[in-house]
C-alpha cells in the first residue's frame, strides 16, 4: 500500500452537483437516479454546501412505500430550500491530500464525504465508499 497516494487517484471527478436555487425534488431524483448519497451544492464552480440523502430523509418520507408518499414529499419539499437543508460548515481537502489524511478526517468526523477543492473550485468528491474500494483493491 502506497503511503503518499493523493486522493485524486480515487476521488470521483465527474461530480453531480446542485445549485442553491434547485429544488429538493431535483435533489431526490439525482440521489435515486445516480445511486449516490452526497451532492455538493455550488454557486458557479465554488462549493457552498453539501446535501446528503440523510438530510433529505430527515425532512421527508422519501423511502415511504405508500401510494401518497410522492404527494407528501412534494408538499414537504416545497416547504424547504436546499440552502435550509444542506450542511454549510464544510471541511474540504485538496486533490493532493493523501488518502491516509482523508481517511483520518473521515474517521474522526460524523460525515461520510468530503468535497475536493483546488483554488476554491470543486474538482471532486471522496466518500467512505471510495476509501473502502481502495482498501479492497490493495488485497
TrEMBL record:
Please give the Pfam families that the UniProt record associates with this protein: CBS
This protein's record includes keyword Ribosomal protein: no
SUPFAM superfamilies recorded: CBS-domain pair
Keywords tagged on the record: CBS domain
Q: Which residues form the signal peptide?
A: none
Q: Which domain of life is it from?
A: Bacteria
Domain CBS per the UniProt entry, residue ranges:
11-67, 86-139
Name it. CBS domain-containing protein
Q: Which organism is it from?
A: Mesoflavibacter zeaxanthinifaciens subsp. sabulilitoris
From which lineage does this chain's organism come?
Bacteria, Pseudomonadati, Bacteroidota, Flavobacteriia, Flavobacteriales
